[in-house]
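Ticket reopened. Same input as before:
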Amino acid sequence: MILPVYVYGMPILRKTSVEIDENYEGLDQLIEDMFETMKASDGVGLAAPQIGKSIRLFLVNAQEMEIDDEPDLKDFKRTFINPYITEEWGEKWNFQEGCLSIPLIREDVSRHSKLKIEYYDENWEFQEEEFEGVRARIVQHEYDHLDGKLFVDKINPLRKKLLKGRLTAISKGKADVDYKMIYPKK
Ligand code: NI
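Engineering reply: fixed in the latest deploy. New output:
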């Protein structure tokens, strides 16, 4: 089932998400629905707060992304449950980020190039992995959602000022996208 996406201005996007355990009801279905939602909206990552659940869960699928020198994206499909970034290092670099909760806005964000993350996968197997480049970038962006952070918090203040009108419009549900959005009621 395709789920509606909560957009900029919804309070849940600013909350800190909580960990879940293996008894979390309907988790398999939720993960399936989130993958379906992400595919339908052409996203490469989706975090649970974006579909209205304040839990530490996000997923990525960058298999369709074509970027030079990033062959590892072809197998980059994962479910991250209760993830914890334990280390971030490497030179900071700019990459243009977008977000299904902030439709049609793309801006350069500077982040470390490498990270180490611990998490449980969809089978509740503990995993520890290192990512770099675009894979690290996608993880960093989604991980931020679990802490109530959005990529526009990290852009240059002047750019953010210029985007203010568009962000306000998004929070009123005005964005020409073909997926269903949930925005604050006036
Ligand atoms: Ni996002």
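The pocket of nickel (II) ion is lined by residues 99, 101, 141, 145 (CB under 6 Å). The chain is about 25% helix and 30% strand. Please confirm and we'll close it.
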